[in-house]
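Re: duplicated header lines in exported structure tokens

Our pipeline writes sequence and tokens for each protein into one text file. With two proteins the header for the second block appears twice in some exports. Here is an export where it did not happen, for reference. First protein block:
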Amino acid sequence: MQRANRLSGLGAIALVVLILISLFAAPRNSILNSGSTYNRAADGYGAWYAFMQEQGTSIQRWQKPWDAIKAEKSPVTLLQVYSRLSFPVITSQERAWIEKGNTWVILGAQHPVTAAKFHTMQQSSFGDVKIATRRRYAKGEGKEVLLGDRFGAIIWQKNYGKGKVIFCTTPYLAANAYQDYLSNFKFLADLVSNQNNAIFVDEYIHGYKDADVRNQESKGDLLSYFANQPLIVALLQTGVFLLVLIWAQNRRFGKPIALETPVLDNSEAYIQALAGVLQKAESTDFVVEMVGKEEQLQLQKALGLGEMLLEPQALIDIWVEKTGKSSTELATVLKLKSQKRPMSERELLSWLGKWQSIRNNS
């Protein structure tokens, strides 16, 4: 008994270790990480960030709350790549910050889907820019279209005092997936650098925070992080559950429940037995006759006709009149139903498939 208890305890410890390893070793790529310059996946911006550094552009990752950027004395350009499409709302505080000469670039502004093609090549001064979205913003007053087509604007800007906000309907304008389209990289680079401001890429919205910010938000160490997450509740529940299993020696409480005997469907059993006999006897004429009558009856009901089987030509004429479709396929299945020669298994399956196609088009 003691040996069994020790084995149960070791098994529980091993399970807990596996859970912890899976939590810490799991990939960090998630929806929140989409659009991050730390992300090397197709939806990340690591390649574009490296491109900007290679060009000698002064660019930094911003890993603080938005309110902290107001302390910057010189005008800045803040680039935000949303992890998912969102409706951007400019608050009064944000507008006051923009009016001082700051620029805010937002990629992933949600707007309605139009009739435009999903993949398009948009002309720009840097060459063709590849866009993968049907979303467009209706052109209106007070907005300058920077990239768009006859369906609406893809990238546009709106001025507020000395500053401006630039919107884009796709968050993937210069994602890693577009490394072969240098025009995309150059176009975004021009959007954030033509004001000669200090350029910041917002990583705070992707979950990256400076050490002082983490300490201020009481998330400076691992224990405090788990203490503030719902995950700690799940771990505690798992621990209690494992203790119960160990105490009960992995046995259920209460009396065992007897399994119920499944109820036999006599009709289904009869049909399966009959089908087996007909298949072995290679007697398809009976199947064709019975199924053909039922299929024709169902078709007549779909066409609003009675339950008395019509002559083949009469049914064909009504089918053409009501559906406007060709009578070839219907005439074929009706002809095969009346033939005396037994069908092969392949011909029978093809015949049933044609009936199904006719039902779907009726």
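Second protein block, exported in the same file:
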Amino acid sequence: MPTKVTAVLSATLLAAVSLAACGDGGGEQPSANEITVWTEENLEDRMAVQNTIVAEFTQKTGIKVRLVGVAEDQFSQTITAAAAADDLPDVIGALPLASIRELEANELLDTETPGKIVDQLGRDTFSARALELDTSDGKLLAVPSDGWAQLILYRKDLFDKAGLAPPDTYEALEAAAAKLNTGGVAGITLAIAPKDSFTAQSFEHVALANGCQLVDNAGNVALDSPQCVRAFEFYAKLAKDYSVKGKQDVDSTRATYFAGKAAMMIWSSFILDEMAGLRKDASPSCQQCRANPEWLAENTGVVTALKGPDGSAPAQYGEIVSWAITRDAAKDPASKFVSFMMNEGYERWIGMAPEGKFPARKGFEDKWDKLPAGVDTKKPLADVYPADVLAALRKSPDTFGRWGIPQGQGKLVGATMGELPVPKALSSVADGSMTPQAAAAQAKADVESIKRGIRQ
């Protein structure tokens, strides 16, 4: 609908005026020494940090930057309108993998400069897996910056008492869920709400572990594979037999674990500051937490990658966000800006939310450990979590897997997260109204229907 797209673009252009950095002279046209940068890190406090970094960049290089905050859920419409108006930004920051692939599909990317930037900074200083996820046909599509991880969190005190191994395989996970599902404590609290994207992310984490893929290398939907059927069966059994009753979602799973009412949970790394009692609006409420707000964090173990019986290697769901340079960008200043953000400005960039910004560049490990996390209270993660947990978190981008991204199906991934056919099918298995085989077949049919509706 053109009117809606125009409205979104107008809002974005207004944001450009209000958030312009470094005194760009109001309505002046961009000069050869000025670039426009969009960022999806558009929260007010994070915009303030970025404006500070931008000001330093301008002072050092003389290159002016118009910094524009863009909401993730409006990005597709906004970039489409900008491309139609021949008014693309030079650089876009904090773009998730699916958005990078969308830009690739629409031929809006400069696919030469990112590789040069990475080579200049040192290709061996980047996570190999992050580079792989950003690569298509031998071309690096964007410069990977940082990422967040899906994790399996478990109560170390309960596991130690029961003599259980960490839940890093299907077998160990189910055994722990069964044994600890007693005494008013659920074995696991697991998202199963059919209309919650968090359910989709949680299931993809478990499915990747078993070698289940959304599509095969030819782009054919593969959700009815034996690996996927087993993943549907396994996840639904956990939810039905060992989790809290009802359609658990992103909020209820966290609340249950924080109350000490579950032995395990699948959640993203963004929970790390909350679990340490550093946010008032989401803090642990277990009995032991009243005397020590950090008790739950101190007694929680972290598993990054999981392995299923059909999986070739441990895997986990994770998101890599990247810096993209557009096809019409002023290449030299855009390259200098991205290089600056990945080097001189990098510590402050990942410091905006270290619990959800694991460095995709090596050499920043010690600095990341010491970056203050939290909202109402600030404290480095290293002051709360043991060194082995932090080491596992830092290395987690190296095991990130994602449905559809390596196969060039970023648009399909984005569309499925909008319509959520997999959580719908999964929920039906958990409530007993559908078999795993039928659910896998239904999910495949729904995704195929979505794929047909996507403009290729």
